[in-house]
Design a protein that fits this description.
The protein is α/β, with parallel strands linked by helices and 308 residues long. Helices cover 33% and strands 23% of the residues. It contains ten helices and 13 strands. Strands 2-1-3-10-4 form a five-stranded mixed sheet, with helices on both faces. Strands 7-6-8-5-9 form a five-stranded mixed sheet. It has a three-stranded antiparallel sheet with strand order 11-12-13, covered by helices on one side. Helix 9 packs parallel to helix 10 (296-307). The longest helix is centred in the N-terminal third of the chain and has 17 residues, at 12-28.
Length: 308
Amino acid sequence: MKPLIIGTRGSALALVQAEMTEKALAEVFPGRQVIRKVIKTTGDRRTDVPLSQVAKSEGVLDKGVFTKELETALENDEIDLAVHSMKDVPTVLAPHFDITGVLERAPVRDVLLSKTGGGLSGLKENAVVATSSVRRQRELLHLRPDLQLVDIRGNVPTRIKKLAENPGLDGIMLAEAGLVRLGYDIDSELADGIFAHALEPDVFLPAAGQGIVGFETRVGDDNATAAAIAITHTHSLIQSRAEREFLRLLDAGCHTPVGVHTVINRGYLSMSARVFDEDGNDAPKEASFEGLVTEPEQTAAQLYSLIL
């Protein structure tokens, strides 16, 4: 077989996810050469503005700030397979691209890192918490309206360092999946005086696709598609399809504060969603629905009809 070229961002977490992909490919295709190509994306380059403003300032499709350059490389045949964090992938792709596989999903919980421990209830009144996610901002205020929220950029180690060194910062929000993949033990002290508390996903709903590493390929590239399918975790792909379809129906981008949680059990797919209005004026809309695991898009459509 010809070498398979995979494209990835260059952050520490993205490189770990590329290594996971390479390991999975090596187990299924022993001896096949896999070449890694690191590509810097708009989101990696523009750390000078809040994440929610990057697309607007760069003229990039909403949520595509971490995928545009990878897709350009795909289009130009520079890579065969793009490795993405699925929560960063736009819900509508160009017709010549497709998500053809995913790795097994990591834990989906959001984690509060703080200097006091004790989770949200351990934060002092009017505590300052940093996150670049509008979903996390709205969910935090939903549970703790007194919190003062600020933006933060940078990779996981950089954000943890900012929390440790900034006396005016009481906490930051990160995904458990990223922490675990980078080797952090959230059950112990992450750094000197920095404690982690995971928020249960039925209380603090995660982002669609959170914890899932996905593969984007060119439509018609049977070689890359077959490789992606061969290392795909079926239940994680079903969850990804359902969550992405729900976002597509909402016409949701990175400015839309929405949390989605899916669970597969005994042939059924349970979905819950919490959707905030973008202006921040109204209480969130919430709904749940359970459908057949073989019908993820139909289940998402039913959930959407309940939350309208």
